[in-house]
Design goal:
Distance between the termini: 45 Å
Number of strands: 7
Structural class: alpha+beta
Largest sheet: 7 strands, antiparallel
């Protein structure tokens, strides 16, 4: 199953890239939803091959989470491969400068199930496809709005 979302952010490409690939905000968001998530090796800078491990409650049962940045190239592409229980996730962020102060961020999320439980969860997501797309889009918008606000503050001072 594949989901795609994109958002145009009114900020320079470098700033958008730096903010979107600083995963501390995403980590905090995930933890606030009851998951445990730890950086493998306590890395401080996002580069290719950094990893996370942890656990999340899905449908009342604790599931292992693993994630790894598999591509991190030239401020254009960031790919994260992850696994939640029996489900594989491929998340791809691409960044394109439309002008000196507008950047398009596109996200693709592909999900594939390896177990019966994961297949059932995937089936549920298919039924709620519209709501899932709406959540992904709103996540991009929230992150984009934060970058735009930071850019405006930087240019005022």
């Amino acid at each position: 199953m594949k989901f795609k979302a994109s958002e145009d952010v009114d900020a320079p490409h470098d700033m958008v890239w730096d903010r979107f690939t600083d995963f501390s905000g995403f980590e905090t968001d995930i933890r606030s939803r009851g998951a445990t998530l730890n950086r493998v090796g306590n890395w401080t800078r996002t580069v290719q091959d950094v990893e996370w491990r942890g656990e999340v409650i899905v449908r009342g049962k604790s599931r292992a989470i693993t994630a790894k940045v598999t591509q991190f190239s030239d401020k254009e592409l960031c790919v994260i491969e992850s696994r939640i229980g029996g489900m594989k996730c491929h998340q791809e962020f691409s960044f394109v400068a439309l002008s000196p102060v507008v950047t398009r961020v596109s996200m693709t999320l592909e999900l594939a199930a390896d177990t019966l439980t994961a297949r059932l969860l995937l089936q549920t997501l298919k039924l709620a496809r519209g709501r899932v797309l709406q959540r992904l889009q709103s996540m991009l918008v929230r992150q984009g709005n934060a970058v735009e606000a930071a850019y405006r503050r930087q240019n005022r001072g």
